[in-house]
Design brief:
The chain is mostly helical. The protein contains eleven helices and three strands.
């Protein structure tokens, strides 16, 4: 079983052609017209009846029972979550790619959904914990936040090349690795939500970073939102993009 789980984790890699976009907003159209970089297609995976191999072996891995009701609901919600991303996600990506000017490194991504307790969403392998988007959640999060979560994890992959050359990361080199790995990601979140005029979304994720998540997330958000501002981190991404052209 553990081998099966490892195989699943190794299998979350990724390559092929981006599909055309539906439900495109005017802002998305402007972004594509300004810089027609391909939008990666993201596939969300949670097969019935028991979810992924990872979730089948979840209890043995984390020593906590997995909720079978959550598994069943995640199986049924997976197509809805895919539709949510397909409607809302391409706009986030189009604005990002147009602003930074460098393509996403892959044309396709596969993300495994999970309801395994104690397992956070992550970028490598790409795994999204959807427990907080189910009716069984103690505090159910709004569906738009799922789209934002997928975007957040994708941006960890997008900004990875800047890690080796970032002067800002060097400036904060004594910070925890989690802080450093979130600086450019959070800067992009702030940029895109501002461009999309989603002030309420921006306030919500800022509040979550400050109060609900680990101290490292709070510290990273403080650096991006209060100390440096997001613009210097965006500038680094654009400068790296210009050198790659």
């Amino acid at each position: 079983m553990i081998c099966g789980m490892r195989s699943l984790l190794r299998a979350l890699a990724i390559t092929a052609a981006a599909a055309p976009l539906a439900h495109a907003s005017p802002l998305l159209g402007e972004a594509l017209a300004a810089d027609p970089l391909p939008i990666p297609k993201v596939y969300l995976l949670y097969p019935g009846p028991r979810g992924t191999i990872f979730d089948v072996g979840c209890e043995a891995l984390v020593k906590t029972p997995i909720n079978p009701v959550a598994v069943e609901e995640a199986v049924h919600r997976a197509p809805e979550l895919q539709a949510l991303w397909d409607r809302g996600g391409p706009e986030y990506l189009a604005v990002t790619l147009a602003e930074i000017g460098v393509p996403f490194p892959y044309e396709e991504m596969q993300a495994a959904l999970t309801v395994c307790p104690g397992v956070r969403s992550m970028s490598t392998p790409l795994m999204l914990n959807v427990r907080r988007f189910l009716s069984s959640a103690e505090r159910r999060d709004p569906d738009w936040l799922f789209v934002e979560t997928v975007y957040h994890e994708l941006m960890h992959t997008y900004v990875r090349p800047v890690s080796a050359v970032s002067e800002l990361r060097k400036k904060y080199a004594t910070e925890d690795a989690v802080v450093l790995n979130h600086l450019h990601v959070m800067a992009l979140e702030r940029l895109v939500l501002s461009k999309l005029e989603r002030a309420d979304y921006l306030k919500r994720i800022g509040d979550d970073y400050r109060t609900l998540l680990a101290p490292a997330h709070k510290r990273a958000w403080t650096i991006v939102d209060e100390i440096e501002g997001h613009e210097p981190f965006i500038k680094e991404l654009k400068e790296l993009a210009s050198r790659q052209r």
